[in-house]
Structures are given as structure tokens and as C-alpha cells.
Amino acid sequence: MPGGLRSTDPNAPLPRAAEGVLIGAISDDPSAPIVEIGLSRDFQADRDGRLYLTVNRSNYNDARGSFTARIRRERDFGPTRRNTDAARNRDQNSIEEEGDDIFGAPTRPARTRPRGGGTGTGTGNTNDPFGTTQNNDREPRELTVEVPGNSQGTDSGLDMRAGDRVTISATGTIVAGQRAGSVSPNGRQGGASSILGNPRYPFPAAGAGALLGVLRTTDGQQSQPFLVGAQLTFTPQSDGRLYLLINDDNYSDNSGAFAVRIRIN
């Protein structure tokens, strides 16, 4: 089944996810993050490109059978998107977009994602369709996400691996309630709660409105919240997806957003 087995495969593209679980990646870039899909998953694409699907295994020689996957996308039909689509140089190997009804399109043979092991040579492990077995030479990844002032967990869309060097920088201000007022990503400075801490906050030692991070592993476990503030560089000790949130105990009167830039080396 698409949810995978109870066992794991340490050499699979997602070593901590269930063996055989349905996974995907966008584009031919071997450094693109791998998405664990399983039985169902909603996610926002972090790049343009074709979506490739496979199962989470390190060896496919004895694999058989198939999954049926239904994919639904939501598109922005505003003028900005239309102008961008008209100007974009399309990949000559891509499927032309006849319309948004992707299920009414003619059936075409599925294209296979290039296998390069992240080296660009095309000589990687042929049993690894995502080219992820060797990841020592992964190219840096970088994106910017918006974290609303009332966020209790914004998905960054980035899957991190143990040993990555991660740099996060945040700008902007939010209103963290009437008492705290407008604050930077470092949170409210001064006041009893910022000095003594507030046990009701996800990160009690930081002030109201501070930017926090959480790593959620593929088995559903998550780390303790950690302070990001205006800037943080760290190395994850385990694989996981980065989520960003605001340090507060009442989000109903918060507003504004931080612009958060994330770079993974």
C-alpha cells in the first residue's frame, strides 16, 4: 500500500520513512527535496518542474505491482501568473498545459527522472531514481517563506538532513497582541515575561512574538521548539522538515508577517 511497510530502509531516499511508502520530487535537480506522500499529502511546490513519483526503497530489483495516484493542483490564474507563463521558456520535453483539467488530458508514457547521484555525471546508482544515495555534493538550496504573526506552524517546504548547515535570517515586524505590540523576529524585549520567561509559550525563555523553529521527522515526531530570532545558523542532528512558528500563547490578536530566508548547504 502507498503508506509503506512497518520497516525502514537505511539506504532509501528517505531513510527514516517507511520502506515502500510513496514519495515524490519536483524537477530534474538531484538536490530537490523529497516529499513523503504516502496515502495522501497536500503540499506547495517550492520550484517549477515535473513531479516524479516512486517508492521509498534502495533497491527495486524485486519490486512489482503499482500504485494509482490521483494528483490535483490549484493554480493562480491572475494576470501575474499569466504573464509569467507567457514569458517563461518552456522545457521542450515538458507536457504542454492544455488546461487545468489534468485528468482529461491524453494518457502519455511517464517520463523517467534522470539518475545522477547528485553529481551531474549520470553515473549514479541506477537503483536510486532520485539520485539521493550519494548526497555529499548536494548544491545549496535557498528560499524565502512568509510566516504570519498568528502562525503556530508554517511549513517551510524544506526537508533537512543530518549534517546540513542551515542558515535562517528573518526580517519584518509583527504585532504580537495588544500588550506586546510591534516586535521584530527577536520578540518582545523587556517586560517581566521576556526576563523571567512565560511557561505558556512554546519557548518560555524568549519574548512574545519571537520566531521559532521545529523539526518534524518523517515518523511524525518533532523536536523541541528552538529560537530562530533574526538570524540562526545550525546543523540538524537528524533528518526532518522545518516548520516555523511564533512564540505566543494567544494568537487571535496577532497580525503582520516575517519574511524568512532559509539557506541549506
Brief summary of the model shown:
7% of the residues lie in helices and 26% in strands.
Detailed description of the structure:
The structure is a single chain. The chain is mostly beta strands and about 260 residues long. The chain has two domains: about 140 residues, no CATH class; about 120 residues, Jelly Rolls (Sandwich). The chain is built from three helices and 13 strands, in the order βββαββββαβαβββββ. The strands form three sheets. Strands 4, 6, 7, 8, 11 and 13 form a six-stranded antiparallel sheet that branches. Strand 1 and strand 2 form a beta hairpin. About 15% of the residues have low confidence.
Q: Round the Cα radius of gyration to an integer and report it.
A: 21 Å
Number of helices: 3
Multimeric state: single chain
Which stretches of 5+ consecutive residues score pLDDT under 50?
Answer: 84-108, 116-126
Distance between the termini: 34 Å
What is the general shape?
elongated
Q: H/E element string?
A: EEEHEEEEHEHEEEEE
- For the residues shown, what is the average pLDDT? 78
What are the salient characteristics of this protein?
single chain, 265 residues, mainly beta, Jelly Rolls, 2 domains, six-stranded antiparallel beta sheet, four-stranded antiparallel beta sheet, 3 helices, 26% strand, elongated
Task: Describe the SSE topology.
Elements: E1 22-26, E2 34-36, E3 51-55, H1 79-87, E4 141-148, E5 154-160, E6 166-171, E7 174-176, H2 177-180, E8 182-183, H3 192-196, E9 211-216, E10 226-227, E11 231-234, E12 240-246, E13 254-264
Antiparallel strand pairs: 1-2, 1-3, 4-13, 5-12, 6-11, 6-13, 7-8, 7-13, 9-10, 9-12
